[in-house]
Amino acid sequence: MMFENPAMLLIVPVVFFLMWFTGKRKNRGGIIFSSPDKYFIENKKEKFRLNKDYVFFKFINFLFWVSLVFIAFSFSIPEAVKKDIRYLSKGNDFFILLDVSPSMAIAEDGKTRLDKAKEAAEHIVASCGNDYPGLILFGSNSVVSLLPTPDRNSFLNRLKQTNVMELGDATAIGTAIGTAIYFLKNSQQKEKRVILISDGDANYGELSPFDASLMAAKTGIKINCIAIGHAGSERSIIIDTSINDKVTGKISGDYHPEILKKVAEISGGYFLENPGKQVIGRVTASLKTEEEKTETFFTKKDLSGYFFIPGILILLITMVLKIVLLKEIVT
Question: What is the distance between the alpha carbons of residues 229 and 121, in angstroms, rounded to a whole number?
Fold first, then answer.
C-alpha cells in the first residue's frame, strides 16, 4: 500500500499529541475536543469513576480517537498498488493433457489426484510467460477443451470446472497424445510440446502411449510428463461426475509412473513425479521462448473510502453514545 498524499499522515501524531495535551496539561483555560464531558464527570459525579459506566465511557473516548485516525488516513489517499507484466511478443502454443479418468478420484494426502493435477496445471500456467496454454481432457476418449489462448482466466475457469469421468471410465493416454499431435503437427512454431499430467494408468485405446510417443517424436513434439499419485490398491469411493451424478464403486488406485517416464524418454521431454510448486515453476520457466518482450505496469486502487466511511460512522456512533451516557449520569 502507498499514499498519494503522505503529508496528511502528519495529522496522526498531531491527534495523539492533542490526546495527551487534553489530559496532562495543568491549569489549562480552554477545553479541547471531548474534554467537557470529562470535566463534568470529575466535578459532578465523583462516584462515576467506581462503576462500569466509567469503563464504558473510556472505551467510547478510545473509539473517538480511532475515528480521527481513520479520517486522517483517508485524507492521505491510500492506494493499493499491483504490479503486472504485459507480454508484447507471442510465444509458443502448447497443450496440457489432463487425466480425468476414475482413478484420478483417489484421495491421497487429503486431496484427490485430480485436485493435485489441477494445482500442477495452475503452476504451469503461472510460469509459462508469453506462451499460450491449451487444455485437452482425456478418459476413455479425449477432447480439446480449450485451444491455446492468452486469456489465462478462461483457462483457469475451465480447469476449475473439470470433473472426474467427464470422458468415460477408462484411461486412454495414447489417444490424448494423438489428439495433441493432430493439432500441433502442422504448426510452424519453433518448439512443439505438450505436458501430460496423469497417474499413468493406461488401460484403454487402440493407440498405445509408446506408439503415440514415437509419432510425437517424429513430428518434433516433446511430451513432458508429470506423474501424480502413490502406489495403492482398489478403494470403494463416491465420485461426483460432471453431470452431478454420484457413482459408487471400486476404483483402481493403480499408479504407473514408469509409463509416463518412458513416454517422456521416447519423445525427448522431461519427467517429474509428484513435484512441488517451485519445481514445476522452475522447469516450466526454463522452457519459455527466448524472444520475450515485456512491459511492466502498475494498477492502483483508491482505498480512502475504506478509511473515511468507517471513520465517520465510528465518530457519529461515539457522539451518540456520549450524549446517551451523559443524560443517564445527569438523571
Answer: 15
